[in-house]
Design brief:
Chain lengths: ~110, ~110
């Protein structure tokens, strides 16, 4: 199926640990995003990569480090996890260019920091 | 229930009624707007979009209205069905050519059979 795929779907970990979330899209898109959704369902952009190049960094703590090995993948590594990092993280993608503003989202990774 | 503590605006309708979900956007320079539907445990799904040079666009059972004068966007769902129950988000491209989709607060729609 053509889609934006994230793994894992659920991630439960202790404070202070380091964890990664992976994202892959097979839609042929060249721009990928990470969004964070808090407990009040508010969706906030974190990062955007275009062809492996960082485009948007929304003042996210530097404990969060995105990595894009190629334009189909955008992974998110989080160091020294804190309680406030608990949220649902969504990967999204699109193809840049006019008439291509629609974002396609993955199904989310629910991160719980204990 | 799930909505307790979420502080989301909520809309409760009867099956078959029409629903109107409203959204106020923040940036008068935004040139593109989009509505997403998010069901429990899933990612946001595209519903309909509209550019700033239009004031109305229709899809299947959905219509989006844009009022740039008051920076207001609405989503109308005709003949609402139980499967329409979800959280609905409006979003705007607030970055212009440096595309950045900024989401609104979300509205929880509950359809009663």
């Amino acid at each position: 199926d053509t889609a934006v795929s994230q793994t894992p779907k659920y991630l439960v970990t202790q404070m202070g640990n380091d964890k990664s979330i992976k994202c892959e899209q097979n839609l042929g898109h060249d721009t990928m995003y990470w969004y964070k959704q808090d407990s009040k369902k508010f969706l906030k952009i974190m990062f955007s990569y275009n062809n492996k190049e960082l485009i948007i960094n929304e003042t996210v703590p530097n404990r969060f480090s995105p990595k894009s090995p190629d334009k189909a993948h955008l992974n998110l590594h989080i160091n020294s996890l804190e309680l406030g990092d608990s949220a649902v993280y969504f990967c999204a993608s699109r193809h840049t260019g006019p008439a291509n503003e629609k974002l396609f989202f993955g199904s989310g990774t629910q991160l719980s920091v204990l | 229930g799930e909505s307790v503590g979420l502080h989301l605006p909520t809309l409760s309708v009867q099956e078959g009624d029409n629903s109107i979900i409203n959204c106020a956007y923040s940036n008068s320079a935004s040139d593109y707007f989009i509505w997403y539907k998010q069901e429990s445990g899933k990612g946001p799904q595209f519903i309909i979009d509209i550019r700033s040079n239009m004031d109305k666009r229709q899809g299947q059972r959905v219509t989006v209205l844009l009022n740039k004068t008051v920076k207001h966007l609405s989503l109308q769902i005709a003949a609402t069905q139980p499967g329409d129950s979800a959280v609905y988000f409006c979003a705007e491209n607030s970055g212009g050519s440096n595309y950045k989709l900024t989401f609104g607060k979300g509205t929880l729609l509950t359809v009663n059979p």
